[in-house]
Amino acid sequence: MTDKEIDEHIYNLMATYKGDVTLLADAVGALRLGQSFGWAVLMIVYSPMTYRKYQKTLGLDFKEILPEKGEFAERSRGYQLVKDIKNFWQIVKREISIDSKERTMVLSN
Predict the structure, then answer these.
(1) DSSP letter string over the chain?
(2) pLDDT tens digits for the chain (109 residues)?
(3) Domain-by-domain residue ranges, the chain?
(4) How far apart are alpha carbons 39 and 24 in whole angstroms?
């Protein structure tokens, strides 16, 4: 899905959406982050339940439309930790714990 197709999908969704607008706003924000950071970073930053909830709200599968590793993925401290540990799925499934602050921190450089 191209960025233009994603924009059209979001526009059409907003035109017909019924429900909590803050959920829609959060889901669109996650999608936009995913376009630059990739779905792997989203899986680290958000809980599995929240990740699925955002996909359902948008009617999209992030893995199908977003890159695994986006242009800014390396700026995510959580992604760096997972990459260094080499246990991506264990961390995503919360089988291995990393500090929630480090999970979401984005580096300035």
Answers:
(1) --HHHHHHHHHHHHHH--S-HHHHHHHHHHHHHHHHH-HHHHHHHS-HHHHHHHHHHHT--HHHHS-SS-TTGGGBHHHHHHHHHT-HHHHHTTSS---HHHHH-B---
(2) 888 999 999 999 999 999 999 999 999 999 999 999 999 999 988 989 999 999 999 999 999 999 999 999 888 877 777 776 656 666 666 666 665 555 554 444 4
(3) 3-104
(4) 18
Confidence (pTM):
0.77
Question: Half-sphere exposure of 2 toward its Cβ, with a 13 Å CA cutoff?
Answer: 3
User: Which amino acid is located at 64 in the chain?
Assistant: E
